[in-house]
Automatic annotation (TrEMBL):
Gene3D superfamilies: MFS general substrate transporter like domains. GO terms for molecular function: transmembrane transporter activity. It comes from Pseudomonas silesiensis. Keywords: Membrane, Transmembrane, Transmembrane helix. The chain crosses the membrane at residues 16-35, 47-71, 83-102, 108-130, 142-160, 166-187, 220-244, 250-274, 286-308, 314-335, 373-393. The keyword Transmembrane applies. It comes from the Bacteria. Residues 16-398 form the Major facilitator superfamily (MFS) profile domain. This is MFS transporter.
């Protein structure tokens, strides 16, 4: 048990997770999932190329990667309330500037603000906040948060599409800015415990992790986890952007391909429910192995190109991705403990976010020059390496 739970009034975890889950839906919907809805209207109205418009997200992810380590250290020192509140302010400013953008340069300045906000407001910062508050007991809260956050595209896409159709993309950006300012900021400021309710550094009173590990072992495990998460982010981002094109190249009709793509969201949510209810007793290393294996099976089955098999494949792939999102937060906590958890999450986030920015570009190159089957074979190879690497991770505390 960690010191915060011993000397401070108990925190209402359910209320906190629901509150943070709502702001995660708002944050993901207006950042990572935004170009899928607004890229075409922005390009059509401004005359900018679709590449320049979508490139704003890649730039934002690179900025987020550069900012993440500093964000993690800030959460370690002062808790997550001020960081998450700042993310709401930055998202409001970024969306406001995007709506006002009259040229590409201003548009990219908006994405720069949004990029810093992504580092301070998406999963990595939220996981770090929960780890800061609950120490080793944060796993259930992290799982619950990802369960709610999994509805970001399901809710965000139709809401943003409706706003764009009703009042245009610029006014849609203004509405999102107001939502961050009037909803996200108060939630982060009022419902997340502040630094005065937490010690300057979480103190572990029993079962320390990092202190039990030899420094070389700690560094090895950290680099191994970082490499795994980075490669997986490269694969997931590439598949997410190009899935419909991959299916079309494999001979799947457009309408069927869209239906197949819709399986990802529900399968992610179902897998997270299973993790929350059944998998909570598994060590996060085993959860990570299961997640990687499901992604590997899904991508392998997809190579066949058969529509009915593609539905099964994407269900496996989505379930694996859903579990891996949780493992990204719980695995470092289980292996290294809560001390310095925010800083570790920030360091891990940097290459992951860079990979998310580069994955669609690399996948597009392979897809254009070698075809969908070759892309899937390459992706399977990368995920297989991650699966092999996962067996180098301990499932118990190690003292070597």
């Amino acid at each position: 048990m960690t010191l915060p739970e011993q000397i401070h009034p108990p925190i209402n975890r359910s209320r906190l997770v629901w509150a943070m889950g709502f702001t995660q839906i708002l944050a993901w919907g207006s950042t990572y999932y935004l170009p899928a809805v607004l890229a075409s209207p922005i390009a059509k109205e401004t005359g900018w190329s679709i590449t320049n418009v979508v490139g704003g997200l890649s730039w934002g992810l690179l900025v987020a990667g550069a900012s993440s380590p500093a964000v993690g250290r800030q959460i370690d020192r002062h808790g997550g309330r001020s960081v998450l509140a700042a993310s709401s302010l930055l998202l409001a400013l970024g969306m406001l500037l995007m709506g006002l953008a009259g040229n590409v340069a201003t548009y990219y300045v908006a994405w720069t603000l949004i990029g810093v906000a992504m580092a301070a407001g998406l999963y990595d910062a939220a996981f770090s906040t929960l780890g800061r508050l609950f120490g080793e007991g944060a796993r259930t809260s992290i799982t619950g948060l990802t369960l709610l956050g999994g509805f970001a595209s399901t809710i965000g896409w139709p809401v943003i599409a409706g706003l764009e159709s009703w009042i245009g993309w610029r006014n849609a950006c203004f509405v999102l800015a107001a939502a961050h300012l009037l909803i996200g900021l108060p939630i982060h400021s009022l419902l997340i415990p502040g630094s005065t309710k937490q010690p300057p550094h979480p103190v572990i009173t029993e079962s320390p992790r990092a202190s039990e590990l030899h420094p070389k072992t700690t560094n090895y495990l950290f680099l191994l986890i970082g490499a795994m998460l980075t490669v997986l982010a490269l694969v997931v981002s590439g598949i997410s952007v190009h899935l419909l094109n991959v299916l079309k190249q494999l001979g799947v009709a457009t309408a069927v391909a869209l239906a197949i793509g819709m399986v990802i969201g529900p399968s992610q949510v179902l897998a997270r429910v299973a993790e929350f209810s059944i998998g909570r007793n598994l060590h996060p290393t085993w959860s990570a192995r299961v997640g990687v294996f499901l992604c590997l099976v899904g991508l392998g089955l997809l190579i066949s190109g058969m529509p009915w098999m593609a539905f099964v494949a994407i269900a496996f792939y989505g379930a694996g991705n859903g579990i891996l999102t949780i493992a990204r937060g719980t695995l470092p906590l289980a292996l290294f403990g809560p001390q310095g958890y925010g800083a570790r999450m920030g360091l891990l986030a940097r290459p992951v976010l860079v990979a998310q920015a580069c994955g669609p570009i690399a996948a597009a190159f392979v897809l254009q020059n070698f075809g969908a089957s070759a892309l899937l074979v390459v992706m399977c190879g990368l995920v297989l390496l991650c699966f092999i690497a996962s067996w180098r991770l301990p499932t118990t505390r190690r003292t070597d």
